[in-house]
Amino acid sequence: MPDMLIKLYDLADDWSFIAEQQEHGIEIRKPIGPEKHLIIEWVSRHFSPGWAAEMDTAIANIPRSCFVAVKAFEFVGFACYDATALGYFGPTGVKKSERGQGVGQALLKAALLDMKLKGYGYAVAGNVNDPGYYQNSVGAIEIPDSSPGIYRNQAKSAD
Fold it and tell me: In this structure, what CATH number is given to the domain that contains residue 10?
C-alpha cells in the first residue's frame, strides 16, 4: 500500500464541515484528558491495538494531534496525525454504522487543517488502503516506491 502526499497549502481554510456535522448531531473536536482511556479502548475494540497505540501517542502530544467524532456522548470516529512520524496523517476510522455521512471527510479535513495551522506545508498519508479516496478528497498524489515505507521494519508480536 502506497504513501500519499497532500499539499496542505492548497487546502482552503474552510471549517464549515464542523457545523455541517453538528446538524447531524455529530461533534468534531479534540478529545479532552478524561477521555484518553476511553478513546484508546474504543479504537482498539473497533479497529486495532496498533491504531490504539497511535491514538495514545497523538492524544499525548502537546498540543494534541488528533480529533474525535462524538454522537450522543459516544465516539463514532477519530483521526490522528504526528502519531507514527512527524508530518504523517493517520490512522483514521469511522464506526461502520456512521460511514457514508461525511464523518470521515470532516475528521480528515480537521486534522489536515490543524497541520496546516501548525506550519506544515505537506502531509503524508501512510500505507493508504484506498488511494482514490485521498486523491478525490484532498488532491493527494501517490509517492513512488513508498510501499512498505516507514512501516517496513515494524516489529510483529512473537505470539
Answer: 3.40.630.30
